[in-house]
Amino acid sequence: ETVLTQSPGTLSLSPGERATLSCRASHSSSSNFLAWYQQKPGQAPRLLIHGASNRATGIPDRFIGSGSGTDFTLTISRLEPEDFAVYYCQHYGSSGFTFGPGTKVDIK
Amino acid sequence: QPQLQESGPGLVKPSETLSLTCTVSGVSISSTSDYWGWIRQPPGKGLEWIGSIDYSGNAYYNPSLKSRVTLSVDTSKNLFSLKLNSVTAADTAVYYCARDIRSFDNWGQGALVTVSS
């Protein structure tokens, strides 16, 4: 099973700033199966990025996914007020799916 | 885009079986090779995948839950279902259903299930 570690646990930023979120996998794998989600309180997660760098339908281009192997990054180029939320990375592999513990992006 | 809706009891007694159904609209389950999955989230915690199933009943499960989980599909009603047996308080969570395309692109709103006597 691939274990995902996300850092930092919490990121305190202001609107307009750049957010950089990290996801590290315990085993190297195809980037085709790395995804990122956004979750707001009381809501279901929303798929942002699949295949490490492909934006899902309707996702603004300020959300940028990158990385390969064991190290992946979600960058939000300029934070909008609606971007303050929890972000999860997710891996798909031979044992199915695993999720990282999440990074909370809150308002500084 | 498919819409998904979870339904089922919100309260289950310890040692009993949790049963939930996910009704899919906007697309026929049997017309696609996609899988359909269940994910849960304990209050204040992260996400845990439970398992996924396709229209013909091929299923795969989280190894940590496999011994207690059964997934099934009813193509005539365009829905799929989850059964989790021998529940404990640790199974209290919001249960989501979602379309599995090796990521989860369409989600239901979630159903809170509390395990308590």
Write the layout of secondary structure elements.
The complex is a heterodimer of chains A (108) and B (117).
Chain A: E1 4-7, E2 10-13, E3 19-29, E4 34-39, E5 46-50, E6 54-55, E7 63-76, E8 86-93, E9 96-99, E10 103-107
Parallel strand pairs in A: 2-10
Antiparallel strand pairs in A: 1-3, 3-7, 4-5, 4-8, 5-6, 8-9, 8-10
Chain B: E1 3-7, E2 11-12, E3 18-25, E4 35-41, E5 48-53, E6 59-61, E7 69-74, E8 79-84, E9 93-100, E10 104-107, E11 111-115
Parallel strand pairs in B: 2-11
Antiparallel strand pairs in B: 1-3, 3-8, 4-5, 4-9, 5-6, 7-8, 9-10, 9-11
Compact summary:
By secondary structure, chain A is mostly beta strands. Chain A has strands at 4-7, 10-13, 19-29, 34-39, 46-50, 54-55, 63-76, 86-93, 96-99, 103-107.
Task: Give a structural overview.
By secondary structure, chain A is an all-beta fold. Helices cover 0% and strands 58% of the residues of chain A. In chain A, the strands form two sheets. In chain A, strands 2, 4, 5, 6, 8, 9 and 10 form a seven-stranded mixed β-sheet that branches. Chain A has a three-stranded antiparallel β-sheet with strand order 1-3-7, with no helix packed on it. Chain A is globular and about 40 Å long. The mean pLDDT of chain A is 96. In chain B, strands 2, 4, 5, 6, 9, 10 and 11 form a seven-stranded mixed β-sheet that branches. Chain B has a four-stranded antiparallel β-sheet with strand order 1-3-8-7, with no helix packed on it. Chain B contains no helices and eleven strands. The mean pLDDT of chain B is 97. Chain B is mostly beta strands and 117 residues long. Chain B is globular. Chain B has strands spanning 3-7, 11-12, 18-25, 35-41, 48-53, 59-61, 69-74, 79-84, 93-100, 104-107, 111-115. The chains are: A mainly beta (108), B mainly beta (117).
